[in-house]
Amino acid sequence: MMDDYAQLEGVRIATDGAAEMDRNRRIIFVAREKIVRLELRRGPAAERPVVTTVIGLLLFGLALAGGLWVILGLASDAIFPKSAIAAVFLVIRGWWLIDLSLRPRWFVLVHEQSGTRKLVFHRTRDAQTIQRFLLDAKTRFGYT
């Protein structure tokens, strides 16, 4: 029995559309009737890299401020809110957003009638494997 989709990592191209998957759940989906063409690109994975970078920098800055607050509080035996400790963990989310918007990744740029969407390969780095996957999927399902 033949599958009605082709998938490499989290990018799925199917008869009903194109999607970025998180295991078996679609996190981004573009219906077939809205797709004008599929294109392979390399660049920032974020949909809006400038906005994502600014938000990442803000979260990273809050984490650093929270960390400084904790260190100063511990050094002076001062009482500080527990939320300052929680703020330190924002460094992970901030760093992830900055990385998403600055480090180039391969992605399928889905051209719609009213804009574009990105379906990102987060782990796969081999350009030939990705190109073969997209060419095979486009041929198999009739995308341009």
Query: How many independent structural domains?
Result: 2
Tell me what portion of residues adopts beta-strand conformation.
25-35%
**Morphology call:** elongated
Number of helices: 4
Order of helices and strands: EEEEEHHHEEH
Low-confidence stretches: none
How is the biggest beta sheet arranged? 4 strands, antiparallel
Percentage of residues assigned to helices? 40-55%
Structural class label: alpha+beta
Radius of gyration: 20 Å
**Oligomeric state as shown:** single chain
* Terminal Cα span: 25 Å
Quick one: how many beta strands? 7
Question: Strands across the major sheet, in which order?
Answer: 1-2-3-4
Q: Average pLDDT across residues?
A: 91
Description:
By secondary structure, the chain is an alpha+beta fold. It has 2 domains: 5-45 and 103-141, no CATH class; 49-101. It contains 4 helices and 7 strands. It has helices at 49-75, 82-88, 90-102, 127-141, and strands at residues 5-8, 11-14, 17-22, 25-31, 35-44, 104-112, 115-121. The protein has a 4-stranded antiparallel beta sheet with strand order 1-2-3-4, covered by helices on one side. The longest helix has 27 residues, at 49-75. The radius of gyration is 20 Å and the shape is elongated. The two termini are 25 Å apart.
